[in-house]
């Protein structure tokens, strides 16, 4: 007998108390929890900005016209010059200047030698302060936002979901997903939080919001 | 198939809980570290759980999803197998620890590699995978900072979430300075005991390992039956490194980690981070479904581990322990854990959940003291995000221990106590005797070790001095006339 049959046989024997005609749906799952945690009319984008910043990430809000300048300001502040650029990143969003944009394909040692990566996002979650990447256009392979020490992530206000249920419903589980809530962190030593172990030690999120006319560094 | 009683949950065979706890209770450094750490996480957890006014509804949903899953576990595992296979993964079934170790070892050897990087996995600790790989000439490198601390110290984890919670910063600095050189890049000269410096040393130590590793062994927090998606929740990025850069990914997961649908994650991704680290969301969550061309490992193996889980499932009261999502909230609120630490439990699963899970995984006769490692105060039940009634399972397992005749010192003492409490006359006599005898035994208002058959009970607790007169005597003297 294969181990598969052994294990499945043990499970069926162990569940002798479960009626043979019981369907999983016969076991009720109360779904009285909230789909959203914000109130109607609450500023979800502002909440997202506040919660991302609460993780000690840097947050900038701008509109579409101000985006290249906001990217330039972030990179200048970081002194990041050599940058990974994922496939599908809209080049018209890039600021003019002496930056070195390194398009794919990049191998791991090449990524390791760069100062950072600039990407788009697939979704945001306001209540938890999370950006989600799904490797879609402008986001790159998972390694692109992992190996360099700096991640600059551009997200549109319209991509920001209220909370986890709404975000999961928007995402495609067949794609590899990375949920990012602040920079890499550890609390393993006396529960003292330290930003940065193996992932990027600095996360900068730029929110592009059509309702916001002026770039405003936070 | 091997005899499923012949399974490993490292490292039972250690002293029983009371014996192990005695040493821990004398370690004032350990108790200070634990007290500070558990109090910190407790406060953070309460703060972020109270942010959600539907927290109780989320707990109800989490408990119900787990109940649905366990009652139809065969169906969901078969569905998971089909989904993972359709997405390009390869599923293996392991009836026990030995089989899981053999499967993983053969998979690693087949790659031609002799080194693997690991991202925190309790299942592989449970089966002793690292030791087994070492026997086959394969070195397993732990990559979680706490796991690294434990591995460098040739130590055991003492907490589900913060495995090195028993070590303070100076101990960790000394460990890094002495041991890192034996595992790869040495610690930098003049390393301080600042957590930021220690984290930086770990980053440098592991960096080249991550960038060159070809094989990863991981655990899983969840696996979704309807999509075949596997989920790992972490903070440091070591998980992302391990799950993304190598060519071969081998994930070992307990059978109970399956959840029915993708949307069920909306419950657990709210409950888990808030309950475990007290964060709204952990820094990184990675999900993957089979393999993806051009991104991440080219080969993905999923090992489904039984190793006593089906025995646990067979007990309708005890099976609720399989709902555990390993958040560790029950450890951090437990007055027993706070004083003894995790090592005293002699299992990779310490604290209240360990006290119910370990005896079921290995058989109560092999862990008879663990169901007694609790005050039954119920704090663990209140904290559990999936509402496992740990006190109920503890009491249920205590009965099993007593029936199996493997009980410790408690059993005869409790039988004697039951006889006395059943009889008002005997109780009155006992109280009078205790008042006299107890006051004779007391030092500084506490009684340390009790004489005679009660010694076992008093080994791990002080006994308050009995009052000079019993409540019944006092009542008769002062209040009887008022009725």
How would you sum up this structure, described in words?
The complex is a heterodimer of chains A (218) and B (483). Chain A has 218 residues and is of the alpha/beta class. Helix content of chain A is 22%, strand content 23%. In chain A, the strands form three sheets. Chain A has a seven-stranded mixed beta sheet, with helices on both faces. In chain A, strands 8-5-6-9 form a four-stranded mixed beta sheet. In chain A, strands 10-11 form a two-stranded antiparallel ribbon. Chain A is globular and about 70 Å long. Chain B is of the alpha/beta class and 483 residues long. In chain B, 50% of the residues lie in helices and 11% in strands. Chain B is built from 22 helices and twelve strands. Chain B has a six-stranded parallel beta sheet, sandwiched between helices. A four-stranded mixed beta sheet of chain B has the order 8-5-6-9. Chain B has a two-stranded antiparallel ribbon with strand order 11-12. In chain B, helix 3 packs across helix 12 (265-276), helix 9 (169-183) packs parallel to helix 10 and helix 16 packs across helix 18. Chain B starts with 16 loop residues before the first helix and ends in a 5-residue tail after the last helix. Residues 1-7 of chain B have low confidence and may be disordered. The chains are: A alpha/beta (218), B alpha/beta (483). Chains A and B meet through helix 1, helix 4, helix 5, strand 9 and strand 10 of A and helix 2, helix 3, helix 4, helix 8 and helix 10 of B.
């Amino acid at each position: 007998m294969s181990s598969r049959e052994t294990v499945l046989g043990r499970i069926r024997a162990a569940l002798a108390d479960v009626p043979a005609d019981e369907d999983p749906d016969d076991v009720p799952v109360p779904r009285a929890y909230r789909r959203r945690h914000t109130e109607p009319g609450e500023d979800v984008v502002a909440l997202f900005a506040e919660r991302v910043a609460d993780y000690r990430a840097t947050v900038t809000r701008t509109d579409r016209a101000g985006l290249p300048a906001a990217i330039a300001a972030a990179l200048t502040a970081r002194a990041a010059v050599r940058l990974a650029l994922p496939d599908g990143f809209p080049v018209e969003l890039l600021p003019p200047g002496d930056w070195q944009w390194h398009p794919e394909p990049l191998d791991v040692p090449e990524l390791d030698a760069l100062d950072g990566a600039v990407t788009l996002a697939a979704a945001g979650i306001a209540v938890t302060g999370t950006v989600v990447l799904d490797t879609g256009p402008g986001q790159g392979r998972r390694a692109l936002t992992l190996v360099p020490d700096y991640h600059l992530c551009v997200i549109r206000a319209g991509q920001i979901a209220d909370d986890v249920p709404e975000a999961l419903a928007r995402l495609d589980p067949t794609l590899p997903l990375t949920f990012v809530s602040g920079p890499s962190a550890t609390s393993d030593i006396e529960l003292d939080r330290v930003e940065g172990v193996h992932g990027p030690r600095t996360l900068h999120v730029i929110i592009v919001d059509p309702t916001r006319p002026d770039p405003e560094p936070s | 198939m091997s005899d499923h009683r012949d399974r490993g949950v490292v490292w039972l065979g250690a002293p029983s809980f009371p014996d192990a706890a005695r040493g821990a209770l004398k370690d004032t450094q350990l108790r200070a570290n634990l007290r500070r750490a558990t109090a910190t996480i407790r406060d953070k957890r309460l703060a972020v759980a109270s942010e959600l006014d539907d927290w109780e509804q989320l707990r109800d949903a989490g408990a119900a999803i787990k109940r649905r899953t366990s009652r139809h576990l065969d169906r969901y595992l078969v569905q998971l197998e089909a989904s993972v296979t359709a997405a390009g993964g390869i599923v293996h079934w392991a009836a026990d620890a030995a089989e899981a170790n053999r499967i993983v070892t053969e998979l690693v050897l087949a790659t031609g590699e002799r080194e693997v990087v690991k991202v925190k996995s309790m299942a592989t600790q449970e089966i002793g995978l690292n030791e087994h790989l070492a026997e086959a000439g394969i070195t397993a490198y732990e990559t979680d900072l706490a796991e690294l601390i434990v591995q460098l110290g040739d130590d055991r984890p003492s907490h589900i979430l913060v495995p090195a919670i028993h070590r303070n910063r100076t101990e960790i600095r000394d460990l890094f300075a002495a041991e890192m050189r034996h595992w790869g890049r040495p610690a930098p000269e003049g390393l301080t005991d600042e957590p930021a410096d220690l984290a930086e040393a770990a980053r440098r130590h592991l960096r080249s390992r991550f960038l060159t590793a070809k094989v990863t062994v991981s655990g899983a927090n969840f696996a979704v039956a309807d999509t075949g998606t596997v989920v790992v929740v972490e903070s440091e990025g070591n998980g992302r490194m391990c799950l993304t850069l190598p060519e071969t990914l081998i994930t070992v997961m307990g059978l109970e980690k399956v959840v029915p649908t993708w949307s069920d994650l909306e419950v657990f991704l709210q409950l888990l981070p808030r309950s475990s680290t007290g964060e709204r969301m952990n820094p990184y969550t990675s999900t993957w479904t089979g393999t993806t061309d051009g991104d991440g490992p080219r080969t993905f193996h999923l090992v489904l581990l039984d190793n006593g889980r089906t025995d646990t499932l067979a007990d309708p009261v005890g099976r609720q322990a399989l709902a555990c999502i390993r958040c560790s909230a029950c450890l951090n609120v437990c007055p027993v854990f706070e004083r003894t630490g995790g090592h005293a439990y002699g299992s990779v699963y310490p604290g209240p959940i360990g006290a119910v899970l370990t005896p079921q995984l290995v058989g109560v006769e092999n862990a008879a003291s663990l169901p007694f490692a609790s005050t039954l105060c119920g704090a663990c039940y209140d904290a559990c995000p999936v509402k496992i009634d740990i006190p109920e399972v503890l009491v249920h397992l205590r009965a099993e221990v007593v029936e199996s005749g493997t009980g410790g010192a408690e059993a005869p003492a409790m039988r004697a106590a039951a006889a006395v409490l059943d009889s008002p006359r005997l109780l009155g006599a006992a109280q009078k005797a205790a008042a006299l005898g107890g006051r004779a035994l007391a030092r500084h208002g506490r009684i340390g070790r009790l004489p005679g058959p009660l010694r076992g009970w008093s080994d791990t607790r002080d006994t308050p001095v009995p009052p000079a007169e019993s409540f019944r005597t006092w009542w008769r003297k002062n209040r009887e006339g008022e009725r």
